[in-house]
Amino acid sequence: MIKKYLSWGIWENDDQIPDNESRGTFVAISEKVFDDAKAAEDAHRSALLDEDNQILYLLLPGLATWPKSPSYTTANRRDAKFPILAVLAHELGHIAWFAKNSDLKDESKCFRKLIKKDWRNTYSQRFREFGRSSDEHLSLPHTEDIVSDIRNGNFDEGSHGRPDNAASKVKAIHDADTFASLFGSVSSDEDFVETYKLVVLNTAREQPLTEFVITVPDPKGKVGSARNIIRALTTGNKRLKAKADCIITLGILDGPLNPATGTATFGSSSDPERRTRGSGKGRY
Prior knowledge:
The chain is mainly α. It has helices spanning 31-42, 47-59, 81-99, 101-105, 110-115, 143-151, 157-160, 166-175, 188-202, 229-234, 239-249; strands at residues 8-11, 25-28, 71-75, 212-216, 225-228.
């Protein structure tokens, strides 16, 4: 565990693996994730909802000033274990994105075909700082545009009278059923990672996540609409389900990069310096 807020995942490149040792995979989960999950459970709140709503607040600065902002409202799992599994799955998803690099980016592979329908480019940084985008959507709004609207108080038509507002952009992203979350709309790798996370939670051995509802604000300032993201992940013919099916087809969930099966493996070594080396992905 780490005391700082951000968790991270990392894996070793071929040229960084010590002789006679297997590839190291390292994940650090912030101590705050554990503390917050326990606090939510003790207060009889859903720990998973608390965790993902915190992510929304970090992703969209100023969200607290928006009276009818998007928020996660319902989940069938409320215990402290699930947000920890969610963060672990997210960080392992970053590792999987690079570990399965050839499968994910080969032009003939399913995920490559799918992300090309949503992203103008798919540049992957060695480390992805939280919320930082380097990719460009082909059609949907960007989180930077939503943040700009929030800062200007352009929440909905009730606040500024403009049809192009933060609520309309959030709604457009969720109406498309393309991304697993607003966080997943930040970049092509977060697109994969957040989809991977939800697939892991939906296939967990003990009481899988089957209901995960976000209230999407109304562009006119009226009552928002409830969306069960798991339904979009598992049914219908939109791209989010196709991405989830692709992740299953790639076989990632059958191997050591699935934290929900009890088979996840973590790098260890007699060489203490090995824990400071590596390449790979991301911060949550």
